[in-house]
Amino acid sequence: MKKLMLTSALAGLVIASGANAQTTITGEMRVTHKAISSKPATSTTSGRGFGTEQQINFANKGKLNVGGLDYAAGFSLENDAAQTTTLFNENNYIDITNASSGTTLSFSIDHIQRNDSDRSAANIFGFAPSEYSSSGPSGSLLSATPGPGVGQSQSIALLQDVGKFGKFSYAYAPSLTDKAAESGILVTGQSNSEAATEGTEESAYEVGFVGSLGVTGLTVDAFKSKQEKMGTNSVKAEGET
Q: Which of 17, 54, 93, 144 lies at 20 to 30 Å from 135 by C-alpha?
């Protein structure tokens, strides 16, 4: 019941905006070609082919009838070539913002600044660090997720914009597995999507900063994430960038 009440309350905030709302639908499609060869050729270091990705973004924003706050809500549908997992876990969010203070409360997944974003200069030109690995396209130079992947779990986050200096963030996830329903029926007639989703993992948090420190052309990022217990392992997980 508490879960239902919270969902209704958040939806009510969005609906209450009325005539002030603005809805947009955008999308993109990418087609790529990559050819890699080596001597002697092996299945892991040589290959060629096309890649494709499609994405559609749904967004709605406006002003709330409470305290002059702004809101933004939306989600994306992403298909990476032959998608084998969910299409709906990208950029899902409900943001409530106080424009005068630069403070945002975000209920989201894969939306705010986070530790596991690829900020390598090579990525600007269409290459990820793994493509420079000596072991070919299957290798990796840098960990994509140093520490718990809080940004890929449903979380509640607080962001503070400090102008040209940058932006601070804090995100809390009750469980890193809470974005996927567990199998099993808890109550007769209840579907899996409504079942308890917290597994054996404990909660996790991440604090971060991304900004220029007021220096034009400079980008600095610093993150620390921590989880009290990883899955069935009785160890803590920490990551820093």
A: 54
Sign of CA dihedral 156, 225, 160, 113: negative
Question: 31 forms bridges with which residues in the sheet?
Answer: 52
Q: Give the residue extent of every domain in the chain.
A: 112-241
Q: How confident is the model over 93-115, as a mean pLDDT? A: 93
The set of residues, in sequence order, having a beta carbon less than 8 Å from that of 170 and lying 6+ positions away, is 157, 158, 159, 205, 206, 207, 208
**Sign of the torsion angle spanned by Cα atoms 149, 152, 155, 156:** positive
pTM exceeds 0.85 for this model? no
In this structure, are residues 170 and 160 in contact, taking their beta carbons and an 8 Å threshold? no
d(CA 82, CA 76) in angstroms, rounded, equals 17
Q: In what order do the strands lie in the sheet with 237-240?
A: 22-36, 47-63, 70-80, 90-98, 103-109, 155-161, 167-173, 204-211, 220-227, 237-240
Average pLDDT over residues 120-133: 51
Q: How far apart are CA 147 and CA 159, in angstroms?
A: 20
Give the pairing of strands 70-80 and 22-36: unpaired
Beta bridge partners of 74: 59, 93
DSSP codes, 35-54: EE--SS--TTT-EEEEEEEE
Give the per-residue pLDDT at 90. 80
Reported for 40-49, long-range contacts at CB under 8 A and 24+ positions apart, including other chains, are 44/135, 44/136, 44/137, 44/138, 45/135, 45/136, 45/137, 46/136, 47/137
Q: Give the SS3 label for residue 12.
A: helix
